[in-house]
Specification:
With 441 residues, this protein is mainly beta. It has one domain: YVTN repeat-like/Quinoprotein amine dehydrogenase (Methylamine Dehydrogenase, Chain H), CATH 2.130.10.10. Helices cover 6% and strands 41% of the residues. It is built from four helices and 29 strands. The strands form seven sheets. Strands 12-16-15-14-13 form a five-stranded mixed beta sheet, with no helix packed on it.
């Protein structure tokens, strides 16, 4: 890295972690992280949709949805089938299907636009059917649409920031599947807990990811940082002591049906992705902290109360490997964790969720962000981009989509697409598509 050294990262993150005691201060998608309200592809996926950031001086320079063939029995396996540019660079980040899986919603963190793609009429060639351009005004000032998550007939969208100070204070925003605004629910703060119980030091109001366990009427959100930080050059941010104070330290438990916050938990160090167990009696979820390199368990105790607990280290936390995306396998026995700085993927045995054990690791590239697991756990997809201003520089700025097979012991590469060579841009998040979902419709 030319713009930020390991020493710089250690120094900045050490400052940020220390600041957690005095100040409330994306990183990240797969079949096994989809909403429980949504149909799953339990067999072979035919496509991978890659939400891709445009790069200045590369191709048309626009953000785009890239469709890649994923079925090894088809001639288009491992090839770019279609690209659909959306105009400009919006800081393309996360995307999610509606509950009927007919439409894919994809957000732009910088312009606050939400792009809605029809992926069912012709799954190989999605069509852009609507662009929501008034997200900020409709939501009452929420900035940075991040996770787009399916509820019955609705989409729940997490924000990362607000339009008053561009800090981390934000909210959950709800839309109908047709794209009509419904409601805004602000994340609890010390000055406005909204009826929630504060269980530790913090109620910072920050937001990032959202996941639900309907059988427990539970919804959980995590926290990250605001627009001012995520749109800043990574090296500049690391060197700015004030910026490093402003990362989230909380996970919030919500009443899913009432959309009311119930508890605010301390989870120091910017908890990012949340992945919940699939087993009928597995009442727990996992998250990881970017700055402190820990795995945390969010679990229901024997009294029916939700708690959080730090349960494992990721790599060597003193080196700040920067955990980003995670993927839980559908049998709840394995958690894959990517670390951006060293380009590593690690597998943890989580058969005992209170004692995760690392059982495998492999370097995927000079940088790695997202990991997506097929339902059967036999295929893992990886992509490279974190944020446009946070990706590495020069030769370390690898941009790719890679597919690996997993036999329980080793990863074997099946294909790799160089997104820079193909003039596509920065490969960020992946979602799966299949003809079979719409074959009878």
């Amino acid at each position: 890295m030319k713009k930020y050294s390991t020493k710089m990262i250690l120094k900045a993150c050490a400052f940020s972690i220390a600041a957690l005691s005095t100040s409330a201060p994306s990183v990240l998608a797969d079949e096994t992280c989809q909403s429980p309200y949504m149909a799953k592809i339990t067999g072979q996926e035919d496509f991978v949709y890659v939400w891709t950031l445009g790069m200045e001086g590369l191709g048309d320079e626009q953000d785009k949805l890239v469709t890649v063939g994923a079925n090894p029995n088809r001639a288009d396996f491992g090839k770019v089938i279609n690209t659909l540019s959306v105009g400009g660079r919006n800081e393309a980040h996360h995307s999610g299907f509606t509950d009927d899986r007919k439409y894919l919603w994809a957000g732009g963190l910088d312009t606050n636009k939400i792009f809605i793609f029809d992926v069912h009429t012709d799954p190989a060639k999605p069509k852009l059917t609507k662009v929501i351009t008034d997200f900020v005004s409709k939501s009452g000032g929420v900035v940075g649409p991040h996770t787009t998550y399916a509820l019955p007939g609705r989409m729940m969208i997490t924000g990362l920031s607000n339009n008053k100070d561009h800090g981390g204070r934000t909210a959950l925003v709800e839309y109908s599947n047709k794209g009509d605004y419904i409601a805004t629910n602000w994340t609890p703060t010390d000055s406005n807990l909204g009826g929630a119980a504060k269980t530790g030091k913090y109620a910072d109001g920050y937001g990032y990811d959202v996941r639900v366990l309907p059988r427990r009427n539970a919804m959980f959100t995590s926290s990250f940082t605001g627009w001012t930080n995520y749109m800043m050059d990574f090296g500049k941010m690391l060197a700015d002591p004030e910026a490093m104070k402003h990362f989230g330290n909380t996970v919030v438990q919500w009443d899913l049906h009432a959309r009311q916050p119930k508890k605010v938990f301390d989870v120091p160090g910017a908890p990012l992705e949340i992945r919940c167990a699939w087993g009928a009696n597995h009442n727990y979820c996992f998250t990881t902290t970017a700055l402190t390199s820990k795995i945390w368990l969010i679990y229901e105790d024997s009294q029916g109360h939700w708690q959080t607990k730090e349960v494992a280290d990721i790599g060597d936390p003193s080196k700040i490997p920067l955990p980003v995306d995670i993927s839980i396998q559908s049998d709840d026995n394995m958690l894959w964790v990517n670390t951006f700085m060293d380009g590593m993927t690690r597998a943890f045995d989580i058969s005992d969720p209170f004692n995760p054990k690392q059982v495998f690791e492999q370097k995927i590239g000079s940088q790695v962000n997202m990991v997506s697991s097929s339902w059967d756990g036999k295929r893992l997809y990886y992509s490279s981009s974190l944020l446009a201003n946070w990706d590495k520089k020069g030769k370390d700025n690898e941009q790719y989509l890679k597919l690996f097979s997993w036999d329980g012991k080793k990863l074997t590469e099946q294909f790799s697409i160089d997104f820079i060579k193909e003039k596509l841009g920065r490969a960020h998040q992946m979602r799966f598509g299949a003809y079979s979902l719409y074959a009878s419709k």
